[in-house]
Amino acid sequence: MPSDRLPPLNAIRAFEAAARLGSYVSASRALHVTQPAIGRHVKNLEDWLGVQLLERTPRGVTLTAAGLEFHQAASQALKLLADAGSRVARRQQERWLRILCVPAFASRWLTPHIDALRRLRPGLKLAIEPNASFTSVDARQADLGIGYGLPGEHVGVFLTMIKPQVFPVCSPAYLATLSGKSPHVQDLPSCNLIHVDDGTWWNSWFAAQQLPLKVSSNASHMSNDIALNLASRGHGIALATEVLVKDELADGALVRITEAAIALETYQVLTPPQPLSEDAEWFIEWLNEALREEFPHAAIEHN
């Protein structure tokens, strides 16, 4: 008998049930097959192994020495299979929604709303992956993405939601280093500006204010979340969308240093080419409505 061959599974199940329950009759009832079928399966297994496993008696069946050894292994193997099947089935029944998301939006807006979201959609589980650089969504990686960018920057945009105002913020401690007075916009380049890139975002903001100012970055922090954390710790001035700093402005951890503000980019939902699940469709609708309700002046009208 080749060592890599496995005994027939149905025969193992019949043998295990007969040995555990002590009779072919009880095994047939447990497995919902006929008594002769149990006998044939056991005989096939014994022939396959070349050894007797069960002895029939007037009261049922008893295990031989070889049968006892094989029954222990068979019972463990069947339990392992049953347990693995249960785990896989439970995971299949769990409804996971995998979301790629720009980091600052994930930590500062989406995560605080998760409890409310779960109450509205019982049983829905979220797997949120912060990603500062994705431009499209692959179904193998996620079910949808939440990005922030300019038109044409992302591929597979399903919905453009809001276009929030962008403005400079800093901590009260950093403002105090500026003699407690907010600098004029044209004086910002002489301050410690915190960058998420090589200076492009700040320069775009200056240009939108009709100011011919150019700045460059000595350190690029890639994520608005990092830049705003640095700003709240007094390291300088960062640009923020109102979506990201609403709470910190309210509790005084950050302050606006000027009323100058401009809407530059949009929050967008990206989807893979494949059809969306019901949960993904529901989430997108909920997300769009929640953002538009919280930031109505930033809402984009769709035709």
Describe the protein in words:
- The chain has helices at 9-21, 24-31, 35-49, 65-93, 103-110, 114-120, 172-177, 200-208, 224-232, 242-251, 278-294, and strands at 54-57, 60-63, 95-101, 124-130, 144-149, 157-162, 165-170, 238-241, 255-256, 262-263, 266-270.
- Helix content is 43%, strand content 17%.
- The strands form 3 sheets. A 5-stranded mixed beta sheet has the order 4-3-5-11-6.
- Strand 1 and strand 2 form a beta hairpin.
- The chain is built from 11 helices and 11 strands.
- The relative contact order is 0.13.
- It is α+β, with helices and mostly antiparallel strands.
* Computed Rg: 32 Å
Helix count, DSSP H or I runs of 4 or more residues: 11
**Helices and strands: which structural class?**
alpha+beta
What is the quaternary state of this protein?
single chain
Q: How do the SSEs run, as a string of H and E?
A: HHHEEHEHHEEEEHHHEHEEEH
The overall pLDDT, averaged over residues, is 90
Strand content: 15-25%
**CA-based shape:** rod-shaped
- Strand tally: 11
Distance between the termini: 72 Å
Portion in helices: 40-55%
Which regions have little confidence, pLDDT < 50, spanning 5+ residues? Answer: none
Largest sheet, in brief, is:
5 strands, mixed
Biggest sheet: strand arrangement: 4-3-5-11-6
Summarize this structure briefly.
The chain has 303 residues and is of the alpha+beta class. The protein contains eleven helices and eleven strands. The chain has helices at 9-21, 24-31, 35-49, 65-93, 103-110, 114-120, 172-177, 200-208, 224-232, 242-251, 278-294, and strands at 54-57, 60-63, 95-101, 124-130, 144-149, 157-162, 165-170, 238-241, 255-256, 262-263, 266-270.
